[in-house]
Structure formats: structure tokens, C-alpha cells
Amino acid sequence: MSSHWGNHLHLSVFGQSHGPAIGVTVDGLPAGFPIDREALSAFLARRGPGRSHLTTPRGERDEVQFLSGLKGDVTCGAPLAAVIENRDTRSGDYAQLSDLPRPGHADWTAQIKYKGYQDVAGGGHFSGRLTAPLCIAGGICRQMLGSCGISVYAHLLGVGAVSDRVFDPMGETGLERLEAMPLPTLETSAAAHMERVIVAAHQAGDSVGGVVECMVQGFPAGLGGALFGGLESRLASILFAVPGVKGVEFGAGFSAARMTGGEHNDSFVAEGGQVKTASNRHGGILGGISTGMPLVLRAAFKPTPSIAKPQDSVRLSTGEAEQLHLRGRHDPCIAVRAVPVVEAAAAIALMDVWLEENGRGVWI
Amino acid sequence: MSSHWGNHLHLSVFGQSHGPAIGVTVDGLPAGFPIDREALSAFLARRGPGRSHLTTPRGERDEVQFLSGLKGDVTCGAPLAAVIENRDTRSGDYAQLSDLPRPGHADWTAQIKYKGYQDVAGGGHFSGRLTAPLCIAGGICRQMLGSCGISVYAHLLGVGAVSDRVFDPMGETGLERLEAMPLPTLETSAAAHMERVIVAAHQAGDSVGGVVECMVQGFPAGLGGALFGGLESRLASILFAVPGVKGVEFGAGFSAARMTGGEHNDSFVAEGGQVKTASNRHGGILGGISTGMPLVLRAAFKPTPSIAKPQDSVRLSTGEAEQLHLRGRHDPCIAVRAVPVVEAAAAIALMDVWLEENGRGVWI
Amino acid sequence: MSSHWGNHLHLSVFGQSHGPAIGVTVDGLPAGFPIDREALSAFLARRGPGRSHLTTPRGERDEVQFLSGLKGDVTCGAPLAAVIENRDTRSGDYAQLSDLPRPGHADWTAQIKYKGYQDVAGGGHFSGRLTAPLCIAGGICRQMLGSCGISVYAHLLGVGAVSDRVFDPMGETGLERLEAMPLPTLETSAAAHMERVIVAAHQAGDSVGGVVECMVQGFPAGLGGALFGGLESRLASILFAVPGVKGVEFGAGFSAARMTGGEHNDSFVAEGGQVKTASNRHGGILGGISTGMPLVLRAAFKPTPSIAKPQDSVRLSTGEAEQLHLRGRHDPCIAVRAVPVVEAAAAIALMDVWLEENGRGVWI
Amino acid sequence: MSSHWGNHLHLSVFGQSHGPAIGVTVDGLPAGFPIDREALSAFLARRGPGRSHLTTPRGERDEVQFLSGLKGDVTCGAPLAAVIENRDTRSGDYAQLSDLPRPGHADWTAQIKYKGYQDVAGGGHFSGRLTAPLCIAGGICRQMLGSCGISVYAHLLGVGAVSDRVFDPMGETGLERLEAMPLPTLETSAAAHMERVIVAAHQAGDSVGGVVECMVQGFPAGLGGALFGGLESRLASILFAVPGVKGVEFGAGFSAARMTGGEHNDSFVAEGGQVKTASNRHGGILGGISTGMPLVLRAAFKPTPSIAKPQDSVRLSTGEAEQLHLRGRHDPCIAVRAVPVVEAAAAIALMDVWLEENGRGVWI
User: Fold this and answer.
1) I want to staple B260 with a disulfide (CB 3.0 to 4.6 A). Which of A206, B212, B213, C75 is the partner?
2) Could you give the ipTM of this predicted complex?
3) Interchain contact, A358 vs C357, CB within 8 Å
4) CATH code of C117's domain
5) Residue A347 sits in which domain range?
6) Partner residue facing D356 (CB), from B226, B357, B360
7) Is the model's pTM score more than 0.95?
8) Number of domains in chain C
């Protein structure tokens, strides 16, 4: 169960952080779509480490090898499989963790569930590194959606107490600029401020949480469905699968709970023969179905649990309290590298919904 | 896709608000569990309308008929099917909505998706009434979990700007008292305050949103899994299927994004030979797997979109702007009746997870 | 798991033979298809008992009540739910079976699996009666396929040692005549012969097996897929779910194993600009994908296990051997009433495949 | 859809015959099971080419690389991924097939479905080579079942007109001897006879079909379920996914259709406090649930469609009839190498059923 997702697109994510390779299989991609491999590499590089001094220096480039699903660079209808070899691993760093679990990490729960058989090194299958294969699948889906005029962009809305401005829910232009920014924000000052907060946390041997906001423009009205087939349900099921996500909201989200209906409802207006809404607190989704307005969602990431500061833990073999002193290379703020991951997750979910409506067939 | 959920428990929810009946099938329930039908009726009554002056006066009692899955009142291993007949329906109230969609409702998106073939009356398949069959399934799962010492309780954490105190994430006692309260809150004063807010909204021809917080105690450590098999992912996929939910968070949730790792991580402590956490900001889940600490989650509900106040809409047949004047009976705050619905959704998801670990077999 | 099927169409079958009702939910049917209820009743009547002296006299008419999924008689996009009430049940007939299991029946295996909690009356959830809801779903799918020019017909190919001629795999015309025949055969003499065999078995307190052959004409080329997505795999998974089926084959089937490649391969020919095969031993499927030639499949049904003849069994409570003397009303040849059931199963599987290719959308 | 299977074990098979690699992911394997890699290699070697002069000389050894799912050789709870690199490929042999499809092959149907985007080389994703990853997954499941005392063995029951004796459905001993035989038969004379038939077909530029019979001993009673959860349904869905399978039957299978109930029903007998059946025409399955008697099933394989003899085809680009002269290396009888594939498919399906009953947990 841990690695499988999808109804019309079947995703299977595999790998352990320090195993031979991590990867993904994607079944259900229409045949005939030419993958832009350079653009895919650029997308993956946004998630990759070492992009700035704000991320872990673990120096590996995520080089994707496609094992199947392509003829040249064009999807051939067969399931796509792609892997990334793990290279720069130092498993020694993790040896102690099976006996002295890191607070905020899966070390302890994996031990309970798998009774010592789990692969601890680098977080094993629970590592944030598993978001790389998600980005392969998501990067391809994002390209496919893009070729239909559907764009998927995210930015860092918050880091600790610092906030960027929110997306204008009625739409934005020029979002491609976000892709080139180490800290993708709408306001430049926010990025500078966030950088200071992250550096400070790192220097204090600590880490900091963040919020990623994502907007999808061009998604057609009428896709999704009621109840479990609703867009929120399907998007959330993949967003919450991203390690570190502790909250997801759509449109006005939690703030909707504090509004009245009169404040929250978006009026319908006719614009050039088309029905739209005059505002977009509903985040592009009503009754689980897209309205044609931009989809807007937010995911809250907890602070990186691995911090240099001493922490209280328990040595499992003795049952004694013991302080944990972590070494190793860790991002001081996982939300930074999570920005393209949120885009990937959204793109996968929306591609699944798109295929539900349009069938598999051959990509035109 | 719209009505199917589950991996080990297969749920299928059906019905339209003003059709002959609504119902649910549940496949995968272990045989040999005696359903307490009186307790189930009481659970459904908590969701039912007409429980106080704060809910719609639509006067129907949700009388459950079991069509299959039982021998007497004991599960027999065959799929369970249960229906509730729709009685007190006044479809006339809804006749205009197919042409003049209600802001904030699925009228418009259903029209786009189903091109006029959808059943509009009472919201059709998009009605909040579909949460009744969810409560049948969830009420049974909650009983099953209860027989294993796992309790599932929710309260109204917020209505508009009014807040109850949050659950003590380390655990609470005496939560069964919430079941008897029309406005289930931890602090009595909060209920009184909320009532005033709801009444005021209603009198103003308006409605108000709210937040439901749910806590699961006694859930064993080690259940769930990484990525898509994680508890957050599976719980969220069913919570976001509940009409009106626009945000879901676990543990510290969105506030975790504003913390540092040192503030957010929960230390491990040994207590009488058992490993626990000294605090519970993680909401009982690490790496998608339960820690044995109470599970804590929150769902944000938007304000009821159906309000008496005039609203701007568009007459679809003419494309002209037109004001909508809604009549009909509507809850001024859907969060109130959603309290047991959140419990039901959580219980279903956790029963699915429980069966994954323990197998189907026969209930002991 | 026992009652759920489908990837694009989600079927959930429920009910026990002597419970309040049996039924089915079908999620994923496109909106806008007008169900011909009279034709559906006629289809169900073909499966119904009491159609001739060759079937059980259990006198119930399978009256279908639609609980959801329709507006009038037109699909509305919401999941369809339909039930048939159980009326003419005599559970007393079955009282002894929980302790003295019938050879060839599920009495014993259900007892092992469900440890006494199973519903024994009338075979419970294992009854052939559960094929009625399958026929509701299948009858609707067959109408939908029919409206696209795809016809699904079956006949009794064999009863005991008596054989009808096989379908001409290159195509047949006038197959609608089969619908009116109590023993649907291509050669009239075969029906007469079969009738004698069935009557003789019945008079001897025995029963007899049979083979049903099904042909689908008009199914477009290019649907299905490799491996688990193949037409054979998906058709077989639903055909083997029909109680009593012990063998399934496609095209030349088991006889292909005795051929050489030169004998078995069907040459390609160009006919009026279209590529076809000159013969159809492949049964319309190559590599799991339809070729555009008629689909041909056969399902072998075992003889009705419930026979009047004394049989050796074991009294479970004492562990002593004991002869079983069955009363009750049983078909002497289940294959007879299984003819429309095979059509229904095939139609459901093909509708699922059709939706995979064409998407859900609205029926044109 | 083409590559995904399973409810409790999630299989995803990928690869094209002449692509970089073929492989499989398996999610849901319990942690803590030590894989015997030598035994797994020996199992794969039984499927491998070049084992005798009766199989294709394509000289590649199927060397398995595990990318994830293991710690050392022990399952770690994370999804298992395994790949086999493709080495000895000569794609030139296949260049013409996209325009001149081979009778009996997927060339034509893949062209219709994927409109030229499919990978034709070596049969692409439709190649029998894809059974190698199935054997990796199946070989591991077979070892797991084996460690519970459940054995899975198959033999060549028929090649063309030559037959081995059938398994004694009440049980066999010494079946491990089949593993060492190039043509695994119960009677030595059958193997010699089959060899002559295969050699003769090969020399005539032809091929020949065959039947594989499989028996599972030690499978506990009470596993499986009614309808779609039945053992026949689940086994058949994976068996028919094996390229070349055109028929599947259980127990008496098609011959049951020619019997009376009195002939076919297996009496119950008490033996040392245990209930058994005195014969086993039911093939170990009643009502979709295992009886504890050996499971017996047969799969019919069509003759290899690729034959050296000239065959009639159509040149797609011109629409003209043209004779096809195939070169390349092909097995004259795919049933030979399919023997372990049938074992693998059965083992996977039964492991899925086993997990349904017993839950995932950790392997003891």
C-alpha cells in the first residue's frame, strides 16, 4: 500500500534513500507524447540539493534513466519506468538511529511496524529523497498538462513567521519566473527575509517550517466529481503523501471557517458569453468539480525534524533516556525544495482526473 | 469514481437528496461483529436535522434499513448494504436552480460536467445528505474500533470567530459527554457563544463556517505506512470527500509551518517500559505511521452556501445576470451536524488501516 | 473483496439469497443514457426462474427498484443503485445445511471462513441468485454497447454430452432470435435434445452441466491492453465470478493447444481498405487488444450441486458421516439460466474497457 | 492499466523486449522474509531461454538486480523493485513488423491502439519476455508460500496431440523432480514424445501449442471469497495476463460441463477429525473459497505465433497483401518455458489472497 497511487494513472514509487536506486513506474500515460528531457531535468534540479547554501550539500545530481515506456523520447503506451541511482550516500551517519530514534522522524514508527527489518539508512523508504521519483512522474504530467494550456506553479508562501503575498486567486501572469528562483516568492523582499530566517535557524542548529502555495491555471471546468471523486480528495491524498506535509487547504481554506456565507460565496457573473465567478474563494472547486477558475491550494510543511541541536530520545535496547546528537547533512527548511514537489503532486492528481474524463487513447 | 473508497474496506455511497433512497455498501467487514443498532441510531441522530433550532427543520428521521451483510444484527461476512428512504422532500423548492445556479454550490459545476442530465433536486448526489450513509458505515466502524479500545470523538473547535479550547493532544477523558450536546464543545461557554453566532447569522439570512477537531485515542502504534499508504493521506482522502471541507490538518498542522524543529519535534521518553513522546505536536503520526499517541486532526468547513440573502448569479438560458432569492430549509452552520460525520470518516479510514495490518478474518 | 469489481466502472454486488434484498451499485456510468426499462425487464426475465419447466419453480419475479443514478429513466451521472426484494423464500428448507454441508456447494467453505457467522439460508451471499444484480448492471451496459452498434449474444453450446453448433467466428446474423428461446441454441434440434437430457437428469434426482458460448460483434479494434489490462484477463475475472463457472476460453481456446502455429494463426487480409483476419481462431483478441473481429468466448458451468439424490456428507457437530437428502427447488441445469448472465458479465467488462479508452464524460 | 495487478500485493510490471530493462515492483510484501536468491535464480532459469535445444537460443541470462525492498536479502517492508537488463537484442530483425504485422501477434492491434507510437522491437511490451519480471515476483511469493508449507508445481500436460497424465487431484509427492526437467512431465515417455513433436514442428518452420497444469498443495481451507473475490476469478485474471494463454480451467473444468451432479459432486468424508472430500473434481475451490484439498488448474497456450513458414499478411502502408517471411529466434512451443510462469502467476494470486486473510504485518 505504501507506494501505489491512482485510478487512471497508476503510480508506483519505490526505493530507499541509501539503496541502489529510487524510482517510479507510471502506467496509463497516453502514447505519443514527446517528453522534453531537458525541461524535465531542469524541473528535477529545482528539487535537487545543493542549489544554494540553503539546502543540504549532499552533492548528488538526480540523473534519470528511463527503463521503459519510451521510444526515443516519446511515450509509447507501455508503462514508464524511471530510476535514479543513489551515489553519494554515507550510511555510517545513520547507524545509530535504529537504536536511538530521531524525534519527529519515522525511525521509531518504522521500528514498531517492521520490527527491525526496515532499512534505516538515510531514512530508508521514508526519506524525503523519495520525492525525486514523484517529481519525475509529476514533471512529465506537468508537461502534458502544459501542452493543453494548463500551467502548474507554486511558491513559498511562508517560512517560519515570514510570509510572501498570496497568489491573486483570479489569476497571475509571468509565474515562470518562479522556476529560476532559489527561494521562489512573489515578492523579492520576502525571499530575502526568508533566507535570513533559514540561515539563522541553520546556524542555531535548528530548522524551520514553511507553507507552499500552488496555483493551476487553464484547468477546464467540469472535471472531478462528488464525494471521493472530488478534486480536493484526490489532490489531498497525494499531497499528504509528501513527507512533512501536515496540513492542506483549498481556496479560502481554514479561513473559510471564520467567514459567513455572504462573505465566502463567490457570485456568478457572465463575461463574454462565459459564466465565471467574480471572486475565487472557492479555489476553483465546487462540489469536488473544477469551475474553470484557477485552482488554489496550500500545503503546510513541518520543520525538518533532523536538527543538530541535542534532543531527548530513548535508547531502545536499554530503555534509557539519552540525548541524541545528530550529524549528517540536512536541509534547514524542507519547504524550499518542496516547491516543485507540490507542483508535481498536483500535476499527477490532475492528470489522473483529466484521463478519467478524456480516456486514455493516444496523445494528439 | 465519485462514490467509491477504500483498499481493505470497500465503501460505495449512493443516492440523490430527493431520489427514492440514499445508502451505502461496505465490503470487507469481518464476520461476527454484533452491531449495536440502538447506538448506531443514536450516532445517526447526532447528524440528523431537527436536533435543535440550530439545524434545518427538514423533519426526516434517518431510519436505516439493512438489506444485506447481517444475520440478525451480527455481520455475516457478506457485503453490508444499508439504505435510508427519502421522505420529506419538496423538490419544487429546487426547480429554478438548474437555470440559476447557487453561488458556492455544485449546481454550476454539475451542469458543466453532466450537461443537464444531473439530478438537481436538493443538490442531488452533491447534497450534504449523502453524509448520512457515510455515518452508517462510519458508525459501524466506530463501534468495531470501540470494541478494541479505540475511541473516536470530535467537537466543534470553531464557529466563525468563536473558538472552543483545543483537545489536550496528550489525551482527554470523559469525551462521551460530547455525544449528548447539541453543540459539542469542551468549554460550555464556547457552546453558548457559538449558538449566538449561529442564530445571528440565521436571522441575517446568512450562514457561518466552522472547524471540527477530532481525536482518536487507543489507536495502536505501527499502523499505516510511507507515502500514499500514510495515515494522513488516507484520512484526508475521505475527510475532503465530506461536502464543505476546505482544509484538513494533523497535529500542529498549519501552525507547524511557523515553528522551528526544536519547537515542533516531540521528544521521546520511556514510561514504564514503553516509549512515548513527551508532547504530541505530531498528532500521533510520524512517517505516515501511528505512534500510539492520540491522533489529532482538524477539518475546516465553509459556511453553508445556501443563504436567504439575495446573491448575484447568472441565468444560464439567457446569459443574463440575475439575483437569486433562495427559499428552502438550510442549516445556518453545516459544521454543527458535521461533528459525527468527521468521526465517521476517521473511523472508516482507520478501520481500513486496521484491516490492512490484521487481515480480514472473523471478528473475535 | 467479495463483491467489488472494475477499474472504470465500479460495481458492487450485495445481498443474500433469503435476506431482505439483493442489489448492485454501479459507479462510473456516463450521464445521459436513457435506460430502456422494458428491455431490461425482458433481459432479467431470461435469467429468471419459472420460464419453463426446465428451471426452478421458485416463483419470484425479479422486480427492479432503482434507488439512485437516474433522473426519470436517464442516467444522471451519480452512482446507480438498484435492488430486488426477496419475497418467495422458504428458509426452513436450508436449516440443516449449516451442520450437514452440501457436496459441491459453498456451505462447507463458508463455514470454515466465517466460522458460523455466515448466512446459510438459500446459499446466502454464495447463491446463484446474486447473478440477478449482475444482470441489472450487465443489462444496462449491454444497452449502452448496443447503442454504439456492439451486440452481445450467447447460446447454450452444450448440455451434458449434447452440443449445439459453435458460433461462426466470422460473424452471425439474426442472433436476437436467441432471446426468445427457453433453451437458446443455434440449431433447433439441439434444444430439443438438451431438453430431454435435462428432464431426464431432473427425473433421476440429478442435474447436468453445460457450456455457454458468447459472441460480441461490432466491438471496435484497439481496445484493451497488454498483460493485466488484456481483454481476456478482464473478461475472465468477471466470468469466473459467476457461480458455477469452472472454465473459460477465448477463440480456439483449449483446442489451440493442440494446433500448430500454421494452423492457428489467422492471416491478415485487406478488405475494402480495412485490415481484417481471414479466419478468427484468435477470438477477436491479440495481445489482449481487440482486433475488430467478433469476440468469442466460452464458459463451462458445472452441474447444479444441489440434487435430490442422496449424497455422502459429514455432520459437522458430531464428525459422523451422514447421508444428505436435499429438498428445495433447484434448477436441474444452471447453464440454462446462465446464458444472459454470461452476456451481462461480458457487457460489463467491455463497458469498463470502453470507458478506459473513451473517458467518462456524458453519453452522446 | 496494462501492467498493474493486485489488491493486497500490488504488482507493477514494466519493460519492452528490446528496451534498456524489464522489471517489476511489488508492494505489500511483509517485512522480514529472507529471499533465497540462489533458489530464485534457479526458478528464473527454468523460464530462461537456451535451457535446451527446444527453446530460443537468444542467449541472455536473466540476471536480477534488486533496486529496493531488501536489506541484505531480507524484505524490509518497502516496495520491492527488481530489474533485468536487456542485452542480447537484435532490433533489426523486427524493423519490418510495424508495416507488415505478424499473424497471431500484437503487432496489428498495438498499431491500432497506439497509432505507430508503440515500441515494436521484439514485441515491445507485448513480448513473452515480460514474463521474466512476473517470475521474479512469483518466485518470491512461491518461496513465501513454501515457508508456510504451501507448494506450487506445474507440468506440461500437453503439447500438440501428446499428453502427459494429469495430476492426481488428491495429491502428489516428489514434484520437486519436475524442476530439473527441461520438459517437465509426470511420465518420462510423455517428455520424449513431446520433444519429438516440438523438434518436428521447428524443422517444419512451424510451432505447436500446449497445456500447463498446476497443483498447489498445503493451501489452507477458508481463503478466498464469493463472486469477484473468488479464487478462480483472481487466479484467472493473472493467468490470462500471461501472453499466449487462451483458456483456463479449475478442477474438472470444461469436462464438468458434460457430467451430472452425481458424477461431479465430491462427497464429504471425516478423516481423523478433519472434514475432507473423497475426490477432488472441484479443484480445491468451492464458492470461490479454498477447501484445503489441492488446488488444480490448467492453462492452454496457443502455438508460438512467430513461425518461419511464409504467412499471409498485409503491408499497412500500401494496403496490399504480402507474404511475411519471419526470421529471428523463436521458441517452437511457448508452453515449455511457461511452466514456471504458471507457477509464478498462481503463487502471486495466492499470496494476495493469503495477505487478505492474514494481514500484512511482519513475516514470522
Assistant:
1) A206
2) 0.97
3) no
4) 3.60.150.10
5) 4-358
6) B360
7) yes
8) 1
